[in-house]
Input
Amino acid sequence: MMKTHRQQAGSRQLIRALIATITVLGTSAAFADKAPAGFLETVHRHVTLTSTVTDNGDLNPYAIVVAPVSAGKIVKDDVLVDNFNNLSNLQGTGTTIVDYRPSTKQTTLFAKLPQKLAQCPGGVGLTTAMTMLKSGWVIVGSTPSTDGTTATKGDGCVLVLDPNGQMVAAWSGPTINDPWGNMAVIDNGDSATLFISMAGFGLQSPDVIDPATKFPVRIKKATVLRLQLQIPQGKPPVLVSQTVVGDGFSQRADRDNFLLGPTGLALGPDHTLYVTDGLDNIITAIPDALDRTTSAGTGKVVTQGGLLNWPLAMVYTSAGHLLACNGKDGQLVEVDTVTGKQIYSQWIDSDQAQSPPGNGDLFGIAMTPNGDGFYYVEDDMNTLMRAGK
Output
């Protein structure tokens, strides 16, 4: 995924800042006379924190993870961001993870993996499927390519890194095919459950066109996989079991975006798993995701259309709402999981260089530790951002 990297002029950044300010002021005035209906109405500040481009030229930031503990090179509340593209801007070739430390405002290289890895079919291309466990292990998905398209994609794997950025294990197999979407996680310390979307099954080259739509062939083979882990004291996690809890999600190859498939995963306190399916412009719910032994298919519809515009990464707020990044404009959409109502949207990327503004710029998102804001990335600028009150 996302946009090709473009050199940005300082004047353009100024224009974006002015547009964002005008948008916030207008929103504040419109809603000053009533209590906010949701979280997004309280968010008024957007700050650029750091560039995510590494010394080797990797770019196109994807996943965002806030460290739950201090371990190895990582300090609690550090923000980890991985890259999907290499210096040549080929998708599926990024191998690096950066570490931004809010307390010092410093950014360092956390991990640099080899491009080719025998344990990972097809090599390494780090995606938005990433987490850090309370035990200090970092787990990240790989959806690799050699030419930047699905024509040369591999099945990929799930990589386990120690808290110093060294790879200690790689999981692959018939249920793992291009780990793609941001992880939903239940972490009990000595055990953990991961939910990851798999979007590579049956994908061909983006040159294989459906004559009816004139787009690459669309199929419904993407899955959501539950991985059950045991974590022995002082030893890497062990993959105990794998269960497909959702399947039949839409996916297709795409030359500009690598692939389109289910991306956002967020888990509610009742263990309902929410999934974004951008091609169908929908958010669905898989009930009893933690304990179910069979697939729920694509689940139950929570909301569809409306303010959604190809929803991607997603988080669950303390109020029981979902925040979903739009892929086809620069808006973040808030959804009430009980009613399915789309409460509010905010332009968090109003870059006028795209049409609509911010199209293709958003991807990863994570709540701040105290829940009063969120981190997100801007792919066009290769930056980590923070939004708050």
Observations:
- Confidence is low (pLDDT under 50) at residues 1-15, 17-32.
- The longest strand covers residues 238-254.
